[in-house]
Design brief:
The protein is 38% helix and 16% strand. The protein is α+β, with helices and mostly antiparallel strands and 588 residues long.
């Protein structure tokens, strides 16, 4: 695709093969950590060249006049892009090093167009000889340790099954001054899942590093490092950095270190079939922020238009001014004005006396979640009234995310065997020996509960949950992934006083001092809908994944004089939701 774009801009003459060869040799470079990806890239370039290779002879000994394909080992390399080797600048001021580096560059240039196996073998041997000489010289300098020098100079581009544990464009491609364009589709891996590698990446000094963040964020910064001043970068990545908490450093970096020129958010449209996340395209230049980012959002209404991106952007674009670390939301001027007004008078939920918690994870729902008939059976199997009483208290009614509706919930007839793990220094964990009938039930699932990852001190206990008591208090409940369908009742928050335990597909809001009925009214109002749309990343066609990192930022007005009226109306809505009462709430 990049080759085609370059050819279109250059308006080539008839010899496309020669022009393509020139572009590959002098303009295009690639790096990937996987050797197989590098091999596939080389194959694609070979195919591109062959397409414009004309048969100019009938003599097989002359290969029918078809020129041999170039050797691309020094153009596309397998390496860890994010890791930079240590390079004291003084080491390059050594005259012997400069001479040898020039020789090495010459050998690799010759290797690109080498035509015979003998010639390639000779050049590779010469490459190794020069690298060994470089290693000896660098090892003698005081600014290099032998390990640092060996790591850099021992790298060979010709081992097609190896992947270097570093990437350095100066040593690998002779690109010391930076590049004009960086293009890529970085991997999406949560840093907290990378264990020991996370510390190695942190030691690299990335400004965008956040332990709760994602690997693709570091690729943005690494690409920026590789650019010349005024160069451009364009990536396809997950769009979560735009609003997620871990994206704060990323947004600040873009606003202060780059000029974001174009942002296309595919939040509501699965544009790339192979992508497992909602994506966006960002184009920035390595220059000062002009605060005029051309933006476009693809959603259900205009998803057919994205087949021609250039036309789509021309027709749908808005101009946004993105500053510092605030959430990046693509809005029209009037929507931006509304957002500013809400934020000016609202107080973020993190500054309220409100606790927001995710529901309980059992690790084996099959064993720990039971229906009414099974609950009755367990209670019937209790050997005494005392055991039956404490067992009845242990088994709690539950709400799943799918059960929660706007101002109500479905009675699902399901219960949780709440063998909690206790709270350190406050509450002891449940001892299964005190509940023989429950133990007999769970023993039927021993092979599954014994080896699950989410468990407490024993296989019978649930994982630790410091806020288990909050499920016994009055609370606002809502599903984690909330449908954005207005007909389905969006937004969909409700109130629970019946001590339901909410499962991990839902969330709760609890408070000892705040008026939860008032908060419920605001969240379910048109203002609440607007806040969700502007603070929560849209999850494809499904709706919104309302994580705590978003809800803590919701700006809600503290207005005691109106809270009583709104609370009274919300109480009536919980009893019987009607259109008239909804309209009255929005008016308030």
């Amino acid at each position: 695709g990049r080759m085609t774009e370059l050819l279109q801009r250059l308006e080539p003459a008839s010899d496309l093969y020669a022009l393509k060869l020139e572009l590959i040799e002098h303009c295009i470079y690639g790096v990937d950590i996987e050797p197989i990806a590098v091999q596939i890239t080389k194959l694609r370039f070979f195919i591109s060249l062959i397409c414009d290779c004309e048969r100019r002879s009938d003599r097989p000994e002359e290969n029918y006049g078809i020129p041999p394909l170039p050797n691309l080992e020094t153009k596309f390399v397998a390496a860890n892009t994010l890791l930079r080797p240590k390079q004291p600048e003084e080491g390059f001021r050594n005259q012997a090093v400069e001479v040898l580096k020039t020789q090495l560059t010459s050998v690799r240039n010759d290797h690109f167009r080498a035509k015979t196996a003998v010639e390639k073998k000779h050049l590779r041997q010469e490459d190794q000889r020069i690298r060994e000489a470089l290693l000896a010289v660098l090892g003698q300098t005081s600014v290099w340790s032998s390990d640092e020098a060996r790591q850099l100079v021992s790298w060979s581009p010709y081992d097609q099954n190896a992947s270097a544990q570093f990437f350095d464009p100066q040593w690998m491609f002779d690109l010391g001054e930076g590049v004009d364009v960086v293009i890529g589709n970085p991997p999406y891996v949560q840093l907290q899942k990378m264990q020991t590698q996370t510390d190695v990446l942190k030691a690299q000094g990335y400004q965008t590093f956040d332990r709760t963040g994602d690997l693709y964020c570091l690729f943005y910064e690494r690409g920026w490092q590789l650019l010349k001043e005024g160069g451009h970068l364009c990536y396809i990545t997950s769009n979560k950095w735009m609003r997620a908490g871990y994206g704060e450093k990323m947004r600040s970096f873009f606003a202060k270190k780059t000029n974001p020129m174009l942002l296309i958010d595919f939040a509501g449209v699965k544009i790339f079939e192979s992508a497992t996340v909602d994506t966006n395209i960002l184009l920035f230049s390595k220059s000062s922020n002009q605060h005029k980012t051309i933006c476009a959002v693809a959603d259900k209404k205009n998803k057919n238009g994205v087949k021609n991106l250039s036309l789509f952007v021309q027709q749908q674009h808005l101009t946004c001014d993105f500053r510092a670390s605030e959430s990046w939301v693509i809005l029209s001027p009037i929507e931006q004005s509304i957002k500013r007004k809400i934020e000016a008078v609202g107080t973020p939920l993190k500054d309220w006396d409100v606790q927001i918690y995710r529901g309980v994870l059992t690790g084996c729902n099959e064993a720990f979640i039971i229906n009414t008939a099974k609950r009755d059976e367990i209670l019937a199997n209790c050997q005494s009234e005392a055991e039956r009483a404490r067992t009845a208290e242990l088994i709690r009614p539950i709400l799943r995310g799918r059960d929660i509706e706007r101002y109500g919930y479905k009675d699902n007839g399901l219960y949780l065997i709440n063998t909690h793990n206790g709270i350190k220094d406050q509450q002891p964990r449940i001892d299964i020996e005190d509940y023989p009938a429950v133990k007999a039930h769970l023993d039927q699932y021993w092979d599954k509960i014994a080896f699950r990852s989410d468990r407490g001190d024993t296989p019978y206990n649930l994982r630790s949950c410091a806020y288990m008591d909050d499920f016994s208090k009055p609370k606002i409940v809502y599903m984690e992934i909330m449908s954005g369908n207005q007909k389905a009742g969006f937004p969909a928050f409700t109130y629970d006083e019946k001590e339901h335990v909410v499962m991990n597909t839902g969330y709760i809001m609890s408070s000892e001092s705040e008026n939860l009925l008032y908060l419920l009214g605001v969240l379910n109002s048109k203002i609440g809908k607007r806040i969700i749309q502007q603070y929560v990343i849209q999850l494809g066609d499904a709706g919104y994944r309302i994580l705590a990192q978003y809800t803590t930022k919701f700006p809600i007005v503290k207005q005691p004089p109106q809270e009583r009226a709104i609370s009274t109306l919300v109480t009536q809505l919980l009893e019987a939701p009607t259109a008239d009462r909804e309209a009255a709430l929005n008016a308030l």
